[in-house]
Every structure is written in structure tokens, then in C-alpha cells.
Amino acid sequence: MRSYLGIDGGGTKTALAVVDETGRVLAEHRAPTCYYLEAGSTEGTGLVARVLGEAIPTVCADAGLTPAGLDYAFVTLPGYGEASGDVAALDAIPAGILGHDRYAVDNDMVCGWAGSLGLADGINVVAGTGSIAYGQRGEATARVGGWGELIGDEGSGYWIAVRALAQATRMSDGRRTAGPLLELLEDELGLPSPWDLVELVHHRWGGDRARIAALTPLVVRAAEAGDRAAAEVLADAAVELITLVRTARHRLDFAEGEVVPVSYSGGVFQADLVRDAFRRGLEAGSGEEGYTITEPRFSPVIGAALAAAARAGTPLDEAARDRLPTA
User: Fold this and answer.
1) What are phi and psi of 199, to 5 degrees?
2) Could you give the CA distance from residue 109 to residue 114 in angstroms, rounded to a whole number?
3) Would you put residue 155 in left (φ > 0), alpha (ψ -120 to 50) or beta?
4) What single string gives the DSSP state of each residue in 269-310?
5) Residues 6 or more apart from 133 whose CB is under 8 A from it?
6) Which of the ends of the chain has fewer CB neighbours closer than 10 A, N or C?
7) Alpha-carbon span 32 to 10, nearest angstrom
8) What confidence tens digit (pLDDT) does each residue in 184-240 have?
9) Could you give the dihedral angle defined by the CA atoms of residues 17, 19, 25 and 26, in that order, rounded to the nearest 10 degrees?
10) 123-167 pLDDT, tens digit each
11) Which residue range or ranges hold the ATPase BadF/BadG/BcrA/BcrD type domain (predicted)?
12) Residues 233, 131 share a domain
């Protein structure tokens, strides 16, 4: 029985799954993040080697296999390809753990697309702490966005939260009429005064992007309570995410009138205000463009396992796919 390992190396955790050729999930495992480019990491690519060196043998043992017994592995890593000098080292890491060369390494955006669209031509946009769009059309690929919180990640949770915090400071100063946003932030964060945002965000949180991005649900609540500033930020986020998709479409040379499958994932899309605006905007402003917007079919880690089977030259058939757990 053939077996395939999929690895989704996300920014907050590393997910692994072993799947057999019938679509049965033999084992799953969660490990710490292997995002070696994250601020504060001092291990460099050694972090990837350490995390995978512990996680791969564990998930294989749970599946009743050895790493050497896997038919193929598809390893996706956050930050892969964003530091050219590290690519060769990252490419070499799995060989020492698996004991063979039946694997491929790529950026984690690929498993997001593979899972959401089941390896079909189309575009997947991710809006979580960061944001990125990735699509494939035949052999052509396109990445749009994903430049990090300081110079990009438009429409992401971090992007939304930072802009909402800026609007809250304007409300506090009187530069903008105060709305529910400021009061919600003060109440939920336990701030004696709005000025305590400075100490909280800059010092206690140290500007941590994940903690800042986690404020996005508060922004959504404020918008639902009628806060115009919060609603504007969320509407702008939807526009930015639409732009990622449209740009990827043009990069992939889809023809005018050709209907392009689009899927999405990430915590930002859990907000109805963003998701609905994204759908409406993409459909209403498409002109000669056509899109079919669908919810993700599989999780990213299952997408990685699907990609492993396909890259091995033995893609799972539709009956096997139907047995896989859906997203």
C-alpha cells in the first residue's frame, strides 16, 4: 500500500498527515512552528531541521511506518524561497530525516492551494495573520502578496488590526468621532486609558504580529455594532484581497470570459463582513472576467499529501479523494 506524507509548515504550527493510496488518513500530528524567518528565531534553518527531525519520525510511527517506507513526501515551509541563500539548505533537510530523496520542498502557500482546490487550476487566497494569493494553471504558477507585515500583507489580520488601532487613536484624540471601536478596545484589553495602548502594543506585546492580528475579531464586532471606521477598514481589506486574486488571474493568463475557480482560507474570512464583501466585489467588478468562488475542499495539510501523491506520479483517484476528510 503506497503512503504519502504531507507537511504544512504554518507560521504558528507545523501540521503533518500520512495518507495512503485509498484516501485513508493513517496518522496526523501537530508540532511547533518551523518558521525560521520569524523575528526572535536564532536557529536559522536549524529550526526547520529540529522540528521536522522530531515530527516526521513521530507521525510515521503513529502510522505504523518508518520514514524510509514513505513513497513520497511534500514538505511546505513558511518563508521558503524568500531568502535565496537558504533554499539549498532547506531542500537538503528532509533527506537526512527520510533517508531517501523521494520528496519535494516548497512554500506553504502551495499546500493551501492544493487543499482548497484539490490540485485543480485556480487561485487560493489566504488571509490570516498575513495574506497571500497563489494560483496554478497547467504548469504556470503565480504568487501575489505575502511580503510580510512591514511592507505588505494587505488585507491580513495584522493589516486590519493596525489600521483599526490607528483609527482608535484618532477617536481618542478627537480627530475622528468616537464609535464602538474605542470602547471595545478599552474594555476587552482592560485599558485604564487609551494611552495604555502604547505600553501594551509596543512594550508588553513587543509589536508581536500574531498578538496584534488577534485583535481582528474586535474590529469585526465594532463594525457589526455600527462603527464606521471599523467597517471602512474591513471593506478596504476585502478590496485588497480582491486585488490579489485579480492580479494572480492576469499573471496566469486566464482568458477573458474563462471562469476561474477561487477559494479562500484564513481567519479573516471567518468574518461575514469581509467574506461577503470579497464575494460581492469579485463577482460584481469582474467585467469580462469570471469567477467561481468555493469554500476550501481540503485542509492545507491534506492538500500537501495530495500533492505528494501527484508528484510521485500516482495521484489519488476521485474515490480516494472522497474518503479524505474535508476542510
Assistant:
1) -65, -40
2) 9
3) left
4) GGSHHHHHHHHHHHHHT-TT-EEEEE--SS-HHHHHHHHHHH
5) 123, 124, 125, 126, 142, 143, 144, 145, 241, 244, 245, 247, 248
6) N
7) 9
8) 998 888 888 888 888 888 888 888 888 899 999 999 999 999 999 999 999 999 999
9) -80
10) 999 998 889 999 999 999 999 999 988 888 999 999 999 999 999
11) 5-308
12) yes
If asked whether residues 180 and 94 sit together in one domain, one would say no
Do 124 and 104 sit in the same domain of this protein?
no
- Both 29 and 102 in a single domain? yes
**CATH of residue 96:** 3.30.420.40
Facing residues of 77 across strands?
A: 107
Q: Looking at the structure, do residues 145 and 206 belong to the same domain, yes or no?
A: yes
pLDDT single digits (tens) 34-81: 988 875 567 889 999 999 999 999 999 999 999 999 999 999 998 899
Nearest to 124 by CA among 274, 320, 323, 303: 303
DSSP 3-state of 8: strand
d(Cα 229, Cα 197) in Å, to the nearest integer? 18
The answer to whether 5 touches 18, Cβ cutoff 8 Å, is: yes
What is the residue range of 10's domain? 3-117+298-323
Cell 493568463 belongs to residue: 253
**HSE value, Cβ hemisphere, 13 Å, CA-based, for 52:** 30
Rounded CA-CA distance 175/45 in Å is 46
